[in-house]
């Protein structure tokens, strides 16, 4: 028997706001436990919530980006349940009247574009964070009340890898729009995965399980792969898959049952009496529509079309908005967009990875990188010199033209100068000369290196090789 999987995701995206959803406490990450709290987010009696307008607008902006219908009137509800990390014993969320309905996210899957349909996008507050220490546990309520946008897909994903492609595309989108930092290590994106299997060809969905609180891309992949295999084994053995909530154990690589699957009535939803409905006026939506940036897919296509880049280059450059913006600005003032792409994907990204800095934290401006590339293209400096200059610019700043003049780094193409260095290299390295004349062509590169050393990197490498070859004929 052949089985097929169906996966639906509930993705919780922490919104990039300065304050929490219903109070003025800071939404910053990383402070000491229980220091960013107040009577509202701790659920003290009589404390009244006040809605965060920025969070509402960021959620509506996301809805517009994915083509969802932004409701002219949406309502908050109380979702009642009891757990140590929920200080009020209910969560302010949305239920039957969410902010956004429908929409889709485009992904690349099996060599083609696929639209992953969304059921809804709604807004809610986060809960606290539980930590377990062997013989004791603690709760940090700094996170309680942080604005969360929950994006719910239709059960149309067919493989763990497709779910990963969706999450990657979604993270790119919210980062581009400034909706969220999208940092899974900081809990900015967390995911619950609903998973079921059925015999291939059947139309009804199988019994589903929900895997809770997956907070890494690798965790989502591994948990779904395990759970699909587990359900297939249960069905193949003649058993029935229990509809339940399960947790993922990354250490054992298995899911384990937590409780039976809740239904909506288990949470006793009812309208939040302390908050007014959210009304979105047409002029608000028009203003948000104008804020939608050029999204990753459109930018990749434009890089290929306008700059003649290969698809791979465009994919790498458009993956991060700051990198894409820097490339775009540099390419606009350069006569060699492909060289800009090469520099971005090698020297620039390597330096960022090596130092842990962002482009905003470096003194190199797009115009300066374009000038450096132009110096190479015009033959005024060679590539080794350019790379050395870039390292200096990355660390200390500076104009490449001025640096070349100050340091005397201009490339030397004079036949007399290069000839003199070539003769010295030949005279001082008789073994390499003999190796070359005996057929070891690699010896020429060593001799070119000797010319470059004597010229302090200024000799034109090709002319140096030509001069050496002429001398070695004799």
List keywords for this structure.
474 residues; alpha+beta; Arc Repressor Mutant, subunit A; 10-stranded mixed β-sheet; 3-stranded antiparallel β-sheet; 15 helices
Fold and architecture overview:
The protein has helices at residues 53-65, 160-176, 217-236, 282-290, 296-307, 311-318, 321-332, 337-355, 366-377, 383-396, 400-407, 415-428, 430-437, 442-454, 461-472, and strands at 3-14, 69-70, 73-74, 76-80, 90-94, 100-101, 104-109, 112-125, 129-132, 137-140, 147-153, 189-199, 209-214, 244-249, 254-260, 270-271, 278-279. The chain is α+β, with helices and mostly antiparallel strands and 474 residues long. It has three domains: 3-288, no CATH class; 296-407, no CATH class; 415-472, Arc Repressor Mutant, subunit A (Orthogonal Bundle). Helix 2 runs antiparallel to helix 3 (217-236), helix 5 (296-307) crosses helix 6 (311-318) and helix 7 (321-332) crosses helix 9. It is elongated and about 95 Å long.
Quick check: average pLDDT?
Answer: 90
**How many strands in all?**
17
Shape: elongated
Can you tell me the residue ranges where pLDDT is under 50 for at least 5 consecutive residues?
A: none
Domain module tally = 3
The structural class is alpha+beta
How many helices? The count is 15
- Roughly how much helix do the residues carry, as a percent range? 40-55%
Largest sheet geometry: 10 strands, mixed
């Amino acid at each position: 028997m052949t089985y097929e999987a169906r996966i639906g995701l509930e993705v919780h995206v922490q919104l990039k706001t300065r304050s929490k959803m219903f109070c003025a406490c800071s939404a910053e990450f990383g402070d000491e436990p229980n220091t960013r709290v107040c009577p509202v987010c701790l659920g003290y009696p009589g404390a009244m919530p006040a809605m965060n307008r920025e969070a509402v607008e960021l959620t509506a902006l996301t809805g517009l980006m994915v083509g969802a219908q932004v409701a002219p009137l949406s309502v908050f509800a109380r979702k009642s349940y009891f757990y140590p990390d929920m200080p009020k014993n209910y969560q302010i969320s949305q239920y039957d009247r969410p902010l956004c309905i429908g929409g889709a996210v485009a992904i690349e899957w099996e060599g083609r574009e696929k639209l992953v349909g969304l059921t809804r996008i709604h807004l809610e507050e986060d809960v606290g964070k539980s930590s377990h220490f062997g013989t004791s546990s603690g709760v940090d309520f700094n996170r309680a009340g942080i604005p969360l946008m929950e994006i719910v897909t239709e059960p149309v994903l067919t493989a763990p890898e497709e779910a990963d492609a969706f999450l990657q595309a979604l993270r790119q989108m919210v980062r581009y729009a400034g909706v969220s930092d999208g940092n899974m290590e900081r809990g900015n994106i967390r995911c619950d995965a609903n998973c079921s299997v059925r015999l291939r060809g059947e139309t009804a969905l199988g019994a589903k399980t929900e895997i809770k609180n997956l907070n890494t891309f690798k965790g989502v992949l591994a948990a779904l792969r395990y759970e699909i295999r587990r359900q297939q084994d249960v069905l193949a053995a003649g058993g029935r898959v229990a509809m339940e909530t399960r947790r993922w154990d990354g250490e054992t690589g298995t899911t384990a049952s937590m409780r039976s699957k809740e239904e909506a009535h288990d949470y006793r939803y009812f309208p939040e009496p302390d908050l007014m409905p959210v009304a979105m006026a047409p002029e608000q939506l028009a203003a948000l529509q104008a804020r939608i940036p050029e999204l990753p897919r459109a930018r990749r296509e434009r890089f290929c079309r306008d700059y003649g880049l290969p698809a791979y280059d465009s994919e790498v450059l458009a993956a991060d908005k700051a990198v894409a913006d820097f490339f775009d600005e540099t390419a606009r003032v350069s006569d060699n967009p492909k060289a800009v792409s090469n520099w971005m994907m090698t020297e620039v990204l390597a330096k960022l990875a090596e130092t842990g800095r962002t482009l905003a934290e470096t003194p190199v401006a797009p115009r300066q990188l374009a000038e450096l590339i132009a110096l190479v293209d015009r033959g005024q400096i060679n590539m080794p010199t350019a790379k050395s200059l870039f390292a200096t610019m990355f660390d200390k700043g500076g104009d490449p033209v001025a640096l070349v003049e100050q340091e005397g780094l201009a490339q030397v193409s004079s036949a007399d100068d290069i000839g003199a260095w070539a003769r010295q290299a030949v005279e001082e390295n008789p073994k390499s000369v003999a190796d070359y004349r005996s057929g070891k062509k690699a010896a020429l590169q060593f001799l070119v290196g000797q010319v470059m050393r004597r010229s302090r990197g200024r000799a034109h490498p090709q002319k140096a090789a030509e001069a050496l070859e002429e001398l070695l004929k004799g």
